[in-house]
Amino acid sequence: MSAATDNTSKSLFVPALGGLYATLNNAAETMLRAVAGIFLTIHGSQKITDPFGAAEMVEGLGFYPGAFWSLLLSCTEFFGGIFIAIGLLTRPAAFAGMVVLLVTVWFHWVTVGQGFSGAEKSLLWAAILLFFVIRGGNRHSVDARIGKAF
């Protein structure tokens, strides 16, 4: 047990769990990244089959030309989700996904007027992706395997 783990264990109500928490730390982070990426990919799979299908919607939000932004939205969600899930170019993919989600926060909170209750899920997902913008893919990622990361 390392000194850092030992110090953390001493501050726990059940110090014996410190080793377990330390052991599962990377696995839990990897699982969160994989789940976030897979869910984003599933969400984007509905758009990638018709990548220009959201053109009118994105123009309604003020993004012109709609065909360009619709294609970018589709690719960001689908391919960005795959990249996040496997940990390839994790930070840029997570950043792009986070930007998309912050636009949906604006859409639900301001444009549609749903406030926090309408934007809550997008805020949560944006926060998860911000975590990976900051942390990267961790040691269980393609980025780590190739030895390069943003």
TrEMBL record:
It comes from the Bacteria. It is found in: Cell membrane. InterPro entries: DoxX, DoxX-like_oxidoreductase. GO terms for cellular component: plasma membrane. It is a multi-pass membrane protein. Keywords: Cell membrane, Membrane, Transmembrane, Transmembrane helix. The chain crosses the membrane at residues 67-86, 93-110, 122-138. Its main location: membrane. Belongs to the DoxX family. This is DoxX family protein. It comes from Mesorhizobium waimense.
